[in-house]
Amino acid sequence: MSSTSSLDVVAIVGSLRRASYTRALVNAFTPIAPPSLKIEIVGIGDLPLYDEDAEADPPAAWKAFRERVSRADAVLFATPEYNRSIPGGLKNAIDVGSRPYGKSVWSGKPAAVLSCSPGAIGGFGSNHHLRQCLVFLDMPVLQQPEAYIGNVAKLLGPNGEISDDKTREFCTQLLRKFDAWIQRQRR
């Protein structure tokens, strides 16, 4: 684990699209995050589908992903909503990190969940489905503020910044609360 002055936070972005709104929103967190949060997006697009038979000789991508998440102090999950749930790539990353049984890299790691959508309800369904997974994974999840960012396409400026003042303030508060949550869990 990192020192208390700097917290290593991995961000798992559920959208695989390079220009996704979810990825853009997480990238916009860097200038508004407390200095103690060092947020790094960890890619999930190259993770082979989880298959227990492959555990005898796990793919290199699984090993690297598990190792990186293991080193982190906390996890920020950011997800769009696909069919009222989380995208398949995100579910696969969760499965890869949770195995082999009894060696989950997620267990005990403080987490926060952010969902966003071009639509009005901000990924409410995906946010709650993801939270169900995190309960089973034994991850203490920040409960408040709940983060559903609707109409996200209208909230991001041409340079990727959060252009809407209310949304920027909300995200700043979310990151401050997440910072305090991680510190609390480390005691």
Short description:
With 187 residues, the chain is α/β, with parallel strands linked by helices.
Structural summary, described in words:
By secondary structure, the protein is an alpha/beta fold. It has one domain: Flavodoxin domain (Rossmann fold, 3-Layer(aba) Sandwich). The chain has five helices and five strands, in the order E-H-E-H-E-H-E-H-E-H. A five-stranded parallel beta sheet has the order 2-1-3-4-5, sandwiched between helices. The longest helix is centred in the last third of the chain and has 22 residues. The chain is globular, with a radius of gyration of 16 Å. The mean pLDDT is about 95.
Question: How would the global form be characterised?
Answer: globular
Q: How many DSSP E strands?
A: 5
Unreliable stretches covering 5 or more consecutive residues: none
Strand % is: 5-15%
* Assembly annotation: single chain
Task: Quickly count the helices.
Answer: 5
H/E element order: EHEHEHEHEH
CATH classification, class level: Alpha Beta
Helix content: 25-40%
Number of spatially distinct domains: 1
Widest sheet, order of strands:
2-1-3-4-5
Task: Summarize the topology.
Blueprint: E1 7-13, H1 21-27, E2 37-41, H2 60-71, E3 74-79, H3 88-98, E4 111-116, H4 124-136, E5 147-149, H5 165-186
Parallel strand pairs: 1-2, 1-3, 3-4, 4-5
Key descriptive features of the protein:
187 residues; Rossmann fold; five-stranded parallel β-sheet; 5 strands
